[in-house]
Amino acid sequence: MTTHTKGTGLKWVGRAIRRLEDPALITGQGRFTADLPAVHRVRFVRSSVAAGKIKKIAAPQDAMVITAADLRAVKKITPMLHKFNYKPVGQPVLGEGVVRFVGEPLAAVVAASEAAAEDIADLVDITIDETAPVIDARDALAPGAPQIHAEAPGNVILEGKFKSPEFDTVWKTAAKIIKLEARSHRQNATPMEARAGHAAYDAASGRVTLTCTTQMPHVMRTAIADMLDMREADLRVIAPDVGGGFGQKISLCAEYVVLVWLARKLKSSVAWTEDRRENLIAGFHSRDQYIALEGAFDKDAKLLALRADIATNIGAYSCFPTTCGVEPLMAMAEMPGPYDVKQYECLARGVITNTCTMAPYRGVSRPVITFTLERLMDKAASAFKIDPIDIRRRSLIGKFPYTSAMGLVYDEATYKETLEMAVKAIDVPAFRARQKAARTKGRHLGIGFATFSERTGYGSPAFAARGMEITPGWETVILTVDPSGFVEVRIGSSPHGQGLRTTLAQIIADEIGVTPDIIKVVHGDTDTSPYGWGTFASRSLVISGGATLIAAQKVRAKLIKIASHMLEAAPGDIVLADGAAKVAGTDRSISIAKMAREAYTQTHRFKGEIEPGMTETGTYDPPGTFSNACHVAIVEVDVETGHVTVEKFLVAEDAGRIINPMIADGQVHGGIAQGIGNALLEEIIYDESGGILTANLADYMPPTAHEIPDIELHHIETPSANSITKAKGLGEGGCIGAPAAVINAINDALTPFGVAIDEIPATPQRIRAALRAKEQAA
Amino acid sequence: MKPAAFIRHVPRTLDEALKILAQVAPQDGRILAGGQSLVPIMAFRLAKPAHLVDINEVEGLDHVASDGQILSIGARVRHAAFHKSVLDNPLGKLLAYVARHIAHYPIRMRGTFCGSLAHADPSAEWCLVAATLDATMVAKSTRGSRPIAAKDFFEGIMSTALAEDELLAEVHLPLLPADAKFGFNEFSRRAGDFAMAAALVTYRLANGKIADARVGVGGAEPAPRRIAQAEAALNGQAPSDKIFRAAAEAAAKAIDPLEDHQTTGEYRRDLVRAVVRRALEHSHP
User: Considering only the top CATH level, what class is A289-460+623-777?
Assistant: First the structure.
């Protein structure tokens, strides 16, 4: 019998096979929401005012324009948290009475074409009595600030507090207290495909099919059916090919609810394709945070205690299903990062403002807290006059399982080992020599390190701990070997670029002895996929992968039973490999295809000992596992213009067992590109009146290939005991570590000038302003 | 992001184009050449022209020709035409060097030299070239043809001396002296973005001293222009780091900087100082 040891059973897992999903995508055969024909096109008329009372919405004659007045029976989007003094606030799908941010949809125009709908939208006459908007979280917290929702006094929608029992005692023993005020400006996840929805009514069944670009088709169905008081069976939600999500497509869009309502009302098909301007204004934002962080260190520069005050700007409403708690609560729970620090005090607030609603974006808070904590470590190193690498060595977690101050259990990882691996690979002494030589020529190079943990693949208890009403933890997989011998696996996850069709096939192939090319992964359709939570939070390979392994183990057991029966051999002598069951040490074998056929067509032969058919279900709800990495950036800062060039980026990372090294590397590469964008370029800017100044991709600046350097990757594989495939998640790590490494490198480069950059993005304007202030003071 | 309805006219001759333009100009008729600026503006509905006079089929506007004194560039000539030097004169190398800084390759394949000037974005590279080299714009309409000097042509941000019924039919660039040196430098946050400041310099050396210096600055003011103070700092001086710095400082002082939400006047001056000095330091050949 084959066993799971290298060299025998594991022939597909661990190999960089090409992605099975790619041929269709790269030959233009992908199917995206906007490709679907529709009878009616919808244009949303959005508020150009950040705050005010709606006095009038008047449509041109004969135009079909829907407003809140038409949608009285539709429930508001009202996500719920049962902890942290959360104040539930409701979001009407179209603005009702009050507007709360620029971009809020106020009316839906229905016309025969997109251009015609835009023509009518231009003529919709809206009068709003403007009131003073509140844009910045600190302004919203100030006494006397305008109240945005009556339910949330002081504009605080949620308040997380934590303090270790011995905090004050330990704090007093500190040799040094290091303080940092960090600011992360607002960003947009910027998926290549913006949002899009298509709702079609089927007269024969009375059902509506909503095709939309979502990461969570089942959750969308549940939510929209609730809001429209429909039976869930009357709504089918399809996520076809989805052009990137990065978290932005987790949340329920009010626009999709309107589309389903319209399809039912018109008994027809309606479609909306968001344009880039709408996406940048109204398609969810993130990372808008202030963090004041203090660290207490002992005389040996070991971190003893951390105190954090976190204010996250959650925008005008709370996103569904995660709620706006995702950012403040993630920041609170994971602020201590990879360090052994048992004493912790934190205040984390979600603050309502007249800005676009916050929603998860790849990394959720961790790019910000990692940047903040890693800046603190560098500042402490400087205060203690020791090397930034050395100060990390003194505090990184090294014994497992490790229980954090707040009770998170870290499984085995390699925080120290990845740091040492990165330090060796980057050749720090050689860099320091190069840096010194460059400085004599007026060139300013810097090196920055970031060590971090990446909590991945967490199951429902982790969400329950946050008090979430919806705990999207588990996954189900239904695996079928059909009568032709092909394998079809239906999953509740909803991949959109992660390569899950390939990696799940690799897991199954090893388990039941077939090749990945005969395995088809079916996802993204509530009619054909089991209920599941979609793809987000670096969860799918761990959770859906685990469920897949469980289902495959069951199929394997059944195949062995059938083979044992048909080959008249002991189950222990059966080997599954090369598409067949063989009796070890003999030339007797039977193909899996033949066994599958018999399992359907010749069930009488198994005398009731084997259930008919060849379908097995696996469900998995893991405790969660921590990946980790050390990122290193080398930058050059042009001190005359403030421009930063990232010259080199190096990663030493550990995400447990790697199922497909090429896909793993791709995830890290993409994350780092986004992280570099976050560190240097990307910023949603509001003016004082709440208008957005960055509503196109010339003003809102994702990086291009020119701005991304070569990335050198090194891996350690520490099999996770908290994941039955031994794999950890790695979807977010790239963007978690990169901003910290880049900003630390900038600060290292600027050491001779005595300036500190504690703000992302570190734009050339900000870098020059800091340098100019020093020049003028001198 | 769908433009408002418009009528597209496709004339085959210049006369026909000018006649149509004369008719439709009062109804916000616009010329469509490469469309790399106009079409996005229409998609955002920041412009809603009722008529577009598409000159892409007009014969005789695709010439790049030199008579030994000037280089004539017709209204249909794309940016990409300058990827390689178009003539055996330092001007050819200058245009090739600058062309590679314009946006991205697909845009250069479609956008036109004259269209860029008529659009008059303050940061456009070709506008800086025209202003620095004192180009002459040839405006044509049914009323006739008239030359417009570059210093009179650029009136402000996306604003030119062209009348609404005039087509910028061609541009005349004076050839550079055979011994001319040139330098170009621009600053943008990402490769291919609009320059936040750009400088183009040309000069000759006479007995080891700088002569006929031209220093143009773009992207920093509502329109690109020559900066006399910087030129004065150079002329008659031997090239040196000190002189280049003095010229850069003079340019930084002389400008009336554009400001926006992110970019202060001080920062714009920082950039001008940097791009002028770098253009001078890295002059060709």
Answer: alpha beta
